[in-house]
Amino acid sequence: MSLVLPHDIAPIPGDAAGIRSKADRFTRTADAILDAVDALRTSIAQTRNHTSEALDVLAENAGSVSEQLSTLESRYRVAGSALGDFGDALETAQAEARSLVDQSAQTAPNLAYYDRQIAIYTDERTTTTRPSSPRSPVT
CB of 104 within 8 A of CB of 9? Predict the structure, then answer.
């Protein structure tokens, strides 16, 4: 298996900072959901001090909502973490690619020169004939 290199090397597109910004927003949303869950659970705990069917139903519904919000918080936190990791990986890859693009630009003139040299020597090889073998002396 042979390695095939591209003829043109280009920078890797993407907005790593923008992706990390979105990741931060997801994480802040997860934090806000967690605060809401804590507040809801505190409210539920406070209703247990009172006797009322309405408060019991409210506490039951709030408990269900609290569980759903906890699941949602986890999803936002995981998504924020994954986006942050991707933003970091993208930035690293872009920096490495930028270095390769710069190296490619610096070596392009040499490549053209050596391609011409190869063509010259290939042409010389095909047009040069081998000298005939020496004849043995006639006696």
Answer: yes
DSSP letters spanning 73-135: HHHHHHHHHHHHHHHHHHHHHHHHHHHHHHHHHHHHHHHHHHHHHHHHHHHHHHHPPPPPPPP
Distance CA 45, CA 50 (A): 10
Contact between residue 9 and residue 100 where contact means Cβ atoms under 8 Å apart:
yes
CB-side neighbour CA atoms (13 Å) of 27:
12
CA 133 to each of CA 13, 74, 137: distance values in angstroms, whole numbers, following the listed order: 62, 85, 12
pTM attached to this predicted model: 0.64
- Any idea what the Cα angle at residue 49 is, between residues 46 and 55, rounded to 5°? 75
The string of pLDDT tens digits covering residues 15-50 is 999 999 999 999 999 999 999 888 888 877 777 677
How far is the C-alpha of 65 from the C-alpha of 47, rounded, in Å?
16
* Cβ neighbours of residue 79 closer than 8 Å, sequence gap 6 or more: 23, 26
> How many helices and strands in the chain, by DSSP H and E?
2, 0
